[in-house]
Amino acid sequence: MQALRKASFRSDKLQPVLVQLTDGRSYASAATHFSGGSDPRHFKHQDLELHSSKKLQKKPDFGKLIFGRHFSDHMLDVAWSESHGWGVPRIGPIRNIELHPAAKVLHYALELFEGMKAYYGDDGKVRLFRPDQNMERMQTSAKRTSLPDFDGNELTRCIAQLIDADRSWVPQSPASSLYVRPTFIGTEGTLGVARSKEALLYVITGPVGPYFPTGLKPVSLLADPQHVRSWPGGAGAYKMGSNYAPTIHVQKEAEKQGCQQVLWLHGDDHQVTEVGTMNVMVFWINENGEKELVTAPLDGLILPGVTRNSLLALSREWGEFKVSERNFTMGDIEKAVEQKRLIEFFGCGTACVVCPVHNILYAGRNIKIPVPNEKASLSGRFLRTLNDITYGRVRGHPWAVDIDELIATVPVSERIAVKSR
Questions:
Q1: Apex CA 404: angle with CA 163 and CA 418, to 5°?
Q2: CA end-to-end span of the chain, whole Å?
Q3: What pLDDT score does 61 carry?
Q4: CA 271 to chain centroid
Q5: Which of 5, 95, 376, 386 could serve as 21's disulfide partner, Cβ 3.0–4.6 Å?
Q6: What is the DSSP pairing of strand 177-186 with strand 198-208?
């Protein structure tokens, strides 16, 4: 290891946890050195320690990236315990994490995560897209999982430092980006359904291409009401791993029937909620003869997607059609198709941005969904607009946050907490 960029160890507060490195060595993680500062409720970016890796990995071909298969040289981690509060945030070589076999995360799914992206702009700057939104959602998920609170601005600045340490891993391509995965797990090694008295927050990154191997091509969906993703009073609105594991079996069933994704329905009236791991948007002529973009409401059933929020904000800023957050059903979709009022149906999310749909297998029959030419489609317009923002073609847009500004001395809250127009 190279010398620490900033040393702030306090030997009287050490709580070593064995961590296994990817090259087979092990050491006591510096992330478990507790700061013992005046406010252990929050970690601070100014305490961040950087341990640069001496053994850098060979980078993949950025033109042939498969989503989620490649990871950058470093990771960020910071430990928490009920007795000591937050420890010192630390950037070091990416490594395996060793857990007690009774760790809460392994038995009771005390876990949550976020999905973010960093983009290499046309001007050479690296930007995060609306990190404040991810931090707000992550804090909400942490509260629901009984994991400790943290300062989202401080974590964002630590993430900016992590991206800076692996800046060469950010693809210089408009078709690729650096995926950022903050993760928060309960690590206390005790059995019993209870909140975890120990936790680990860590962030890994990696270059990614298109989420779907076929690229931006329309997909087909299986809509089967016997499979339910979420329900009133549940945890469907939180980004927890426990929401995703039960969907994998259904996804495989969809593939057996020739579909790429699952359209999640709810209730006896078969309300449309989400598609795969994405939010759903429908563009149609409603029964009043108005052009309308409609998506399911934030009523606890769906994830409050950052991309969803952004597309709604753009639509309201354009002011060209009605924008609604309300319930709609498969019956509404079938009727709109029969009456040739449905213009477009697509999913949206961080991983894929937008994903058009061309067919829904529902009640044993195929519902053919119109797919406009990409240049003429609303989903295509959304994609081009967001790309212009994320790649810096729209100068000074508050949604695209330069990591160098986060690293600088300007308070992060002055930069990323800007309200969307």
A1: 105
A2: 46
A3: 92
A4: 24
A5: 95
A6: antiparallel
Residue 412: its pLDDT value, please? 38
Q: CA torsion, points 382, 420, 202, 33, in degrees to nearest 10?
A: 160
Tell me what pLDDT residue 347 has: 97
Burial of 291 (0-12, 13-18, 19+ CB in 10 A): middle
Low-confidence residues of the chain: pLDDT under 70: 1-39, 212-216, 409-421
Q: What are the CA-CA distances from residue 332 to residues 223, 288, 336 (Å)? A: 14, 13, 6
Please state the φ and ψ torsions of residue 243, each to the nearest 5 degrees. Answer: -80, -15
CB-CB contact of 79 with 200 (8 Å)? yes
CA–CA gap between residue 412 and residue 401 (Å, rounded): 10
Structure tokens at 411: 């308070």
Element (H, E) at 248: helix 247-256
Q: Residue 200 pairs with which residues in a beta bridge? A: 79, 185
User: What is the DSSP code (8-state) at residue 149?
Assistant: P
Q: How far is CA 23 from CA 20, 57, 73, 78, in A?
A: 8, 11, 12, 21
Beta strands (DSSP E) in 94-159 are: 95-97, 111-113, 116-120, 126-129
**CA-CA distance, 162 to 156, in Å (whole number)?**
10
Distance, CA of 413 to CA of 404 (rounded, Å): 14
CA 25, distance to chain mean position in Å, is: 31
- CA-based Rg of the chain, rounded to a whole angstrom? 22
Model confidence, pTM: 0.87
**Angle, alpha carbons 125-307-351 (nearest 5°):** 75
DSSP structure string for 345-398: EEEEETTTEEEEEEEEEETTEEEEPP---TTTSHHHHHHHHHHHHHTT-STT-T
CB 113 within 8 A of CB 182: yes
Instruction: Identify which of 103, 115, 279, 118 has the alpha carbon closest to the alpha carbon of residue 196.
Output: 103
CA atoms within 13 A on the CB side of 412: 25
In sequence order, the 6+-apart residues with CB closer than 8 A to the CB of 217 are: 356
Q: For the segment 44-81, what is each residue's pLDDT rounded down to a tens digit?
A: 999 999 999 999 999 999 988 988 999 999 999 999 99
pLDDT tens, residue by residue, 188-228: 999 999 999 999 999 999 999 877 655 568 999 999 999 99
Size (the chain), residues: 421
Please give the structure tokens belonging to residue 51.
Answer: 């341990």
Joined tokens for residue 232: 């009133």
Q: At residue 295, what is the residue type?
A: T
